[in-house]
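Our example pasted here:


***
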Amino acid sequence: MNKEYGISIIHNDRPSDLVFQFRQRIFRKGMPGLDTDKFDDRCHHFILYDLNNGDLVCVFRALLFKKINKICESYSGQFYDLKPLKSSNGNMLEIGRFCIDENSRDPNILRLAWNSLFRFIIQEKVRVIFGCTSFEGVNKANHSQAFTLLKEKYLTSLAIRPIAEPGTIFEYAKDLKSEKIDHSLALRNLPPLLRLYLKLGAKVSNSAIIDYDLKTIHVFTLYYNNQ
């Protein structure tokens, strides 16, 4: 039986602690506490839940920038130099903390999340969507084929440089040697959200950041909305 889902959006305010508990469970593997930071109060929070039992199945947040000179104050701006984006026109939107319940395998969840996001993007006349897209774990070797694929086909022409602490920067476009890869397999091994971005035409930075706090490796992702 197909499940049905509801969507709530909390605008420019903090959602309930249930959202932060959900994020804590997904990003920090059930460690006690709440996954929250200084950006949450400024974001629009998208919350997808199972209509049958009310359980959360997906949450993410979106930070809208109508003043381009403010984008360096984004979450991504902690890790990457975003000054090259200031030449862009139109509103910009940073997507972050995107997580899906690990026990939910329904592809409709990602589809519904994306549809709700795009309605918001159209409503707010967003032209540029960006954010940090994460690979699980901090072992670079586990994702070498995926990063080789990014290097070969999906690098942005913008000079988005890392500004993170030494020892956390993965210069994959420079460090990874060219190797024969199974492109279809490498594409399937990308995080689902990143795979969706790339299918739409997104590009990524030539460096990634190892986030030892969330135990992920993230790459800056950039998509221009031409609709």
Q: What stands out?
A: The two ends are 35 Å apart (CA to CA). The beta strands are 5-10, 44-50, 56-65, 91-100, 126-136, 169-170, 203-211, 216-224.
